[in-house]
Amino acid sequence: MDWDDARILLAIYRGGTLRAAAALLHVDQATVGRRLRALEQALHARLFLHTPRGYVPTRAAELALPAAEAMESAADQLERLTQGTDERVSGTVRVTTSDTIARAFMMPAIQKLRDAHPDLRIVLTASTQLSNLTRREADIAVRNVRPDSPDLISRRLGRRELGLYASKRYLKQHGEPRRGTAFEGHSVVVYQRAVFGARADTLCGEPFGNARVALEVNSGLMMLEAANRGLGVAELSTYLAQDASSLVRIWPDCAQFYDLWLVMHGDLHRTARVRAVADAIVEVFEQGQEQQATTARSKKA
Question: What is the C-alpha separation between 237 and 244, in angstroms, rounded?
Fold first, then answer.
């Protein structure tokens, strides 16, 4: 089995259908079917059973899967190591982060990069999903979780604060929530459980079991929009909410904190274009930290 055959096996195994596999491989469905038949003939083994629910792997496919994944890992490593020797500040760099981080920090960084390196092309994905850097789904990620993979390197970008906010209109109609009541008599806007997991049952540490959940979102910008429109109390990053004149912070001493991390694969750290993008991101965050410190000092004064 060569790498092209392994890619067919992996794509059908992961996609479950010829159509999904074709989308993963960026080829047409007929090509995937033809190459699967050729692979099965070459191996003298049936790899998948075609059922109404899709393509189900046989025992032969299950046995071949670890070897195919090892070939995929070796191919990815070869690509990363080869790119690591490239010293040109040009080409494509894939960056992934949340929509709020993208708006507040990535856009200024990308603007700087366009001025300094016009041959760079940035592919920005704003999502709450954690991209797999080892499979080249992204070259750089900005996350609120530090990875534990030994293949990845990370740098702490800084600590951010979460606070509780509601619109002036909402507070005029409903008043301010009372602590210790689990937001009884109030509406809240929360993240979908898939986004924050165990933290999905609290807002800045305060349970909201007695509240009416007006809206569940998977986007920080939609959370901001919902709060602005008076749909309920929301947990927002202070850097996001501080410029919204319609919002009021509730219980200012009630806060949650989280760290942000710049993450990339160790093999790509030496690539000039990836380094340039990482440096621009770090610079924007450092400037944000300085502005935050200056604002804090002026308030104390």
Answer: 12
Distance CA 251, CA 246 (A): 16
The CATH number of the domain where 136 resides is what? 3.40.190.10
pLDDT in tens, 239-255: 889 889 999 999 999 99
Domain-embedded: residue 84: no
Residues 188 and 279 both lie in one domain: no
Contact between 113 and 277 under an 8 Å Cβ cutoff? The reply is yes
Bridge partners, 216 (sequence order): 190
pLDDT, one tens digit per residue, over 178-198 is: 999 999 999 999 998 776 554
266 and 224 share one domain: no
Q: Please name the amino acid found at residue 88.
A: R
Alpha-carbon gap, residue 7 to 13, rounded angstroms: 10
Compute the distance between CA of residue 97 and CA of residue 231 in angstroms, rounded to an integer: 26
Q: List the domain range (segments joined by +) for residue 220.
A: 159-258
* Residue among 9, 135, 148, 4 nearest 79 (CA): 135
| Model pLDDT for residues 124-170, shown as the tens digit of each residue | 988 876 666 656 678 899 988 888 888 788 999 999 999 999 999 99
* Helix 18-25 / helix 29-43 crossing angle, nearest 10 deg: 100
Distance CA 92, CA 25 (A): 19
For residue 266, is it within any domain? yes
Q: How many domains, in total, are found in the chain?
A: 3
